[in-house]
Amino acid sequence: QTVEHGFPHQPSALGYSSFLRLMAIGTRSGAIKLYGAPGVEFMGLHEENNTVMQIHFIPDQCQLVTLLDDNSLHLWSLKQHSGASELQEEHRFTLKGPPGSPPSATQITAVLPHSSRELLYLGTESGNIFVVELPSFRVLEDRTITSEAVLQRVPEDYCNRRLCELVEALREHPKNPDQILIGYSRGLIVLWDLQNNKVTHHFLGSQQLENLYWQRDGSKFVSCHYDGSYTQWPVSSDNRQPEPLENLVPYGPFPCKAISKIYWQTTKNGLPYVIFQGGMPRASYGDRHSISVVHGSQQTAFDFTSRVIDFFIIFSSEPTAEFDDPSAMVVLAEEELVVIDLKTAGWPAVHPPYLASLHCSAITCSHHVSNIPLKLWERIISAGSKQNIHYSNMPWPIDGGSNIAPDPPQRDLLLTGHEDGTVRFWDASGVCLHLLYKLSTVRVFLTDADPNDNMNTLGEDEWPPLRKVGTFDPYSDDPRLGIQKIYLCKYSGYLAVAGTAGQVLVMELNDEDAEHVVDHAEADLLQDQEGYRWKGHEKLKTREGPVRFEAGFQPFVLVQCQPPAVVTSLALHSEWKLVAFGTSHGFGLFDHQQKRLVFVKCTLHPSDQLALEGPLSRVKSLKKSLRQSFRRIRRSRVSSRKRRGGSGNASEVQEANAKFDQDALQEMELAPVQRKIEARSAEDSFTGFVRTLYFADTFLRDSSRHCPSLWAGTNGGTVYAFCLRVPPAERRVDEPVRAEQAKEIQLMHRAPVVGILVLDGRSTPLPEPLEVAHDLSKSPDMQGSHQLLVVSEEQFKVFTLPKVSSKLKLKLTALEGCRVRKVMVANFGSCKTDDYSENDLAVLTNLGDIQIISLPFLKLQIRYPCIRKEDVSGIASCVFTKYGQGFYLISPSEFERFSLSTKWLVEPRCVVDMPEVTSNNDEHKSGVENAVRKS
Amino acid sequence: QFGAEFRRFSLDRYKPGKFEDFYKLILHIHHIANLEVMIGYADVHGDLLPINNDDNFFKAVSSAHPLLRVFIQRQDEVDYSNFGTNTLSRKKKALVTLRNDNLRRRPHINISMPHDFRPVSSIIDVDILPETHRRVRLYRHGCEKPLGFYIRDGTSVRVTPHGLEKVPGIFISRMVPGGLAESTGLLAVNDEVLEVNGIEVAGKTLDQVTDMMIANSHNLIITVKPANQRNNIIRSSRMSGSSGQSTDSTASHHSLPTSHVLQNFHPDEMESDEEADIVIEGGLEPQHIPKLHSLTSSSLSRINGSSLSHRLQRDLVLNNNSGRESNGNIHKLLSSLKTDPRHSLVIPRGGIEEDGTVITL
């Protein structure tokens, strides 16, 4: 396992160091990830797996402190180790109060790393502020700031109403490190002098406090409040208890939601940037996740697609600079990271080089293509760049550290299919997975959603001035649009995409916008089978007439399977210009040159009613089982009530409840998980489900003549082989492609066929279509005898060709009790010499193990655990690359990359050097943005 | 005259009388008084069942509606395999799924002729296993009877160097009535499963063991520790010493006629007869269909065969071939009736008429 791509699942905290120019994200599962310049990534995991609540970088250090929800503090450091930096946990600490004190006494609510780098101020729920020394986490008891000490000189009538307040915010004075501003939740704010251990200023706020922010020169600060207001306070030596300068409810006058965080940034031109989170009118916009930016007369409320976890502003941190001059705003929302360029007019978003939201629509499938030719790569990038014109040109503002990993050896593409009918093309060559191009298949079809309904077409005088940002959109207009299978030919640029409602689209790369009609063909996979009724969804309606497509992959033909069941397998042969597709009913072959259906084959077993009816019947059975379990619960409740009888005092009720619990437990014990042991039979459901399709030029009929062939494997352990006659190139347009069934193999063990492969005379897998034509592969050996490898969920079997007699087998399930989930031929190169490489099978089992099995002798080479076996979606999402790497989803939004190869390894390798610290920096720098306690 | 002569006669449904009288009546009607014959009848499910005592005679008569179809066979030609539950339906499936059916099929349920047994299970490796364990092999051959059992997780107590220890184990949780596992009598609910085809299950999850068993379902060998240890095989050397245990080797309910004990049976011995994948060449229809077709049509023609040539042919078969085949004829006749619902024995109401010695349907 090498690196995680995508957006962290359930982020919970954000931190930023303007000193290191690194950003840190904590998650609810206790992971902490650091990001800097593209390629600079670090990851750490708290042993406790608890939610990370706050992250604070220690000023001018390569260190950070995290606070977890179990109230423990952790100190992490970036240390250099054999040339590369590593993130390590150094210390952990839990604040302990005096014996007998309530847990709230030490519950940490605010953390301030002092610019002296040696002290950490910890505000707690009790109102006390503890001081600990770094890095030892030793509590300096004599320096504790108790709430009693603070309240001493507060006016009597004010403090009477506000006892026992928790510390909401701690802020160090930007110019004077001996002064810290303490904000209590009920509204009291005091300026504390660390030298003399006393309060110097009192600010008597009347509203519940959310957060504080110092202005750059230290003459004023801003407080923001629960009622959606913010207040400016002056700090001067002559008035120890000043009145607020200004109190504003930006989205008043109606009740507003809290403003949970605020920035007040000065600029050269005098107009400040006021940036605050929340504050929307409660009734009409209370559900929006917004951050407002106000700069003079410009005001925009950025409306995020998911809850805002936290945000920070990147501004000039040079202590000598007079103004903040903010350049960018970085917002961590629950489902994506959004960066807004504050320097360019219109405040456009910045295209992030990493942390891409893979799941902006749920990922339904993925496909990996290794070693993309440069030409195709450039064409995809140019198509993608036309889509990205609305992004800012600003270079990525978070640029700490330097990437020292070698350049990726080749260009790899990862294609993900999504529920909303889009295919996204990701650059998967290196550590940063970033979006190159997005393809939508929606235009071909008529859907309910009007593509012109744009959320951004709000009028000028609209209030509040909301603007939608971000790409996360989990709501699919029509689940039938979902992409199920993708096949890209990297040499020809042909792309086949198949979806949930039996649609198969063949596309071609076009560098220009174009308007054309998509040809439409129907494939009736049931043929003349009678008496079947499809109860599933209907096919998608197609758009009549020519459709305008933007530059990129443009569909030119649509094959619609009937019944419109999910396409379960897809194969494209760009040299023969054929596309094969399969569903749970059968499979078909389509000639996309002549736009003609070559043949269809129904694989359905006559008794398989389930496959026919479509997904609906399964829903029914789920309903039924739910109903049954409810009934059971009700029954046992009734019986316990009966037993209770008429007299119902409390103890009896309790007894009855206990009895009920016991009964329920017993029932669970009486009906333990059990598994039926039954041989597979021809009558099982979904035996006709086509699992795999494969094109091969091999010896199907006799050993003297080879011919193109199409192979299909089903869930019931049947392999069909069709002999194809593809006319030579000069007559390709006129003569039809012909197909004839040549073989049908029924595996006796009837396990689903997951892979079919033909090995040539040298026992090398046949090359991909056009691979030989592009001189990228030796032409296959057509002299020696070919072999057929059939991989079922239970066995690997090698047969001779053309006679199909069993030659060799590996009974994986019988030996180990695991079943094959994914299989792919991988080429393993030696890391020592360039001239040695071998082909093996990379296999993922249902237990999440990865095994390497040698070819052609089917010997198990190595096995190691990779994915947890409970992680069904992880196992289902796994894709192998051609060179022994792989990806799987560790959460809906993150791919984990792993490598089985010693030669091809993509992992972050980067250095973070300590920027030089000048001595006068020490005095006046609050290099750290304090993250805020979550409201 | 066997297989060729059909007679119709009536009996009092409510007072059928004794079997002996019926037997004599049959012999009389068919003028075969000097022969030993076996009388059978087709029950409502189309199964061929014997009539050889008062009880089953009464049952046969009472189940007739309205016609009781009685089959008479020479005693020495009787193929007992045709008797029993689901005989016909099972045979029918076997014909559909297996090509070399004749080689594999052996008659079953035969009390007096052990060599005709078709094993459905065996205890093997008795000499190398501890007495408390039992290694059972379930033969599925062509038979389409479900294996029919369920397994579950549980805990088992093991003797370890540190004393007794609780360890997770896999147990048989349920038997499907009429399934192969139940019919062997060698497996029972709560037996602990120790091995599947020689691979230990210790450390494997329920799902893994399930997959292993299914992967081996064509030739499943499971080693169990029976929950009921009283029926274990006691080796002769220890026999004298054991007092509380039964010396009756496969005692009581375990000594069902379908099971027998094989010693020194190595799991790999029968590897060769397992799974042969079926390869169908060319665009042919699957081969079993024509086969079934020819079979059905020929046997149908036998029923309808009023032509002399057919009858002659049948007589030839009867005269020249062994008894097994003539029974096969009866069997085929029945199965052919079963294959087409219109010809089912259950609905002949008025569809059958007597035409001398031949019934036309």
From TrEMBL, chain A:
Alphabetical UniProt keywords: Cell cycle, Cell division, Cytoplasm, Exocytosis, Phosphoprotein, Repeat, WD repeat
One GO MF term attached to the UniProt entry: GTPase activator activity
Coiled coil: none
Gene Ontology process terms (BP): cell division; cortical actin cytoskeleton organization; establishment of spindle orientation; exocytosis; Golgi to plasma membrane transport; regulation of establishment or maintenance of cell polarity; regulation of Notch signaling pathway
Basic residues biased stretches: 634-645
Superkingdom of origin organism: Eukaryota
Stretches forming WD repeats: 45-86, 409-427
Localization terms from the record: Cytoplasm
Region (Disordered): 634-656
Pfam families: LLGL, WD40
Alphabetical list of SUPFAM superfamilies matching this protein: Tricorn protease domain 2, WD40 repeat-like
Lethal giant larvae homologue domain ranges (all copies): 249-348
Entry GO CC: cortical actin cytoskeleton; plasma membrane
Transmembrane segment boundaries: none
Entry-linked InterPro entries: Lethal2_giant, LLGL2, WD40/YVTN_repeat-like_dom_sf, WD40_repeat_dom_sf, WD40_rpt
The protein's assembly and partners: Interacts with GPSM2/LGN, PRKCI/aPKC and PARD6B/Par-6. The complex is enhanced during mitosis. Interacts with DCAF1.
Homology family: Belongs to the WD repeat L(2)GL family.
Role, per record: Part of a complex with GPSM2/LGN, PRKCI/aPKC and PARD6B/Par-6, which may ensure the correct organization and orientation of bipolar spindles for normal cell division. This complex plays roles in the initial phase of the establishment of epithelial cell polarity.
Protein name according to UniProt: LLGL scribble cell polarity complex component 2
Species for this entry: Eudyptula minor
Automatic annotation (TrEMBL), chain B:
Keywords assigned: Cell cycle, Cell division, Cell junction, Cell membrane, Cytoplasm, Membrane, Tight junction
Location of the region described as Disordered in the Swiss-Prot/TrEMBL record: 237-257
Domain PDZ: 135-228
Entries under SUPFAM superfamilies matching the protein: CAD & PB1 domains, PDZ domain-like
Record family assignment: Belongs to the PAR6 family.
Gene Ontology biological-process entries: cell division; centrosome cycle; establishment or maintenance of cell polarity; regulation of cellular localization
Compartments where found: Cell junction, Tight junction; Cell membrane; Cytoplasm
Name assigned to this protein: PAR6G protein
Biased composition (Low complexity): 237-252
UniProt keyword Acyltransferase, yes or no: no
Pfam families per the UniProt record, alphabetical: PB1 (PF00564), PDZ (PF00595)
Domain PB1: 1-75
InterPro entries in the cross-refs: PAR6_homolog, PB1-like, PB1_dom, PB1_Par6, PDZ, PDZ_sf
Matching PROSITE patterns: PB1, PDZ
Predominant cellular place of this UniProt entry's protein: other
Cellular component, GO annotation: apical plasma membrane; bicellular tight junction; cell cortex; nucleus
